[in-house]
């Protein structure tokens, strides 16, 4: 406002100074330039004050929102703590189950190896028993043939 008054005074100023002498146009411009510079500074200061006021208002609003969120979090905190404890318990159980599964898989692998070895051993035993039976049957057959020959001779 003061700048407006200064500007109006400068513009409305006749080129006559206090002594009644006329000032040159350059003197008037120099005077106006100094006053304009001061006026521009005041305008800039007012603009900065308004910006500061706006930023302060926004900061207060943000602070209020933050405080409300803190209150909400404090209200939810017991629920969250309980939930976190439950999650931790579930994670521990899951890890224990995964360990059991790992052990079972290991045992299954061992059993598969044992089963394969057992099958191989079973085949070998069956082959030996078969050979032994065939050998014994041949011996029995020979014995019987010998007995038949002996009977036929008598």
UniProtKB/TrEMBL annotation:
Chain spans, region Disordered: 1-39
The protein, known as: Ankyrin repeat domain-containing protein 26-like
Lineage: Eukaryota, Metazoa, Chordata, Craniata, Vertebrata
Gene that specifies this protein: LOC109702926
């Amino acid at each position: 406002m003061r700048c407006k008054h200064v500007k109006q005074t400068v513009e409305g100023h006749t080129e006559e100074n206090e002594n009644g002498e006329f000032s040159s146009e350059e003197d008037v411009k120099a005077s106006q330039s100094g006053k304009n510079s001061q006026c521009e500074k005041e305008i800039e200061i007012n603009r900065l004050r308004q910006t500061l006021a706006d930023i302060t208002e926004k900061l207060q609003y943000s602070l209020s929102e933050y405080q409300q969120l803190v209150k909400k979090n404090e209200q939810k905190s017991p629920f969250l703590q309980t939930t976190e404890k439950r999650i931790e318990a579930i994670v521990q159980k899951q890890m224990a189950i995964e360990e059991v599964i790992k052990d079972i898989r290991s045992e299954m692998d061992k059993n598969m190896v044992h089963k394969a070895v057992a099958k191989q051993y079973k085949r070998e035993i069956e082959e030996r028993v078969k050979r032994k039976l065939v050998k014994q049957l041949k011996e029995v057959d020979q014995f019987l043939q010998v007995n038949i020959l002996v009977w036929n001779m008598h």
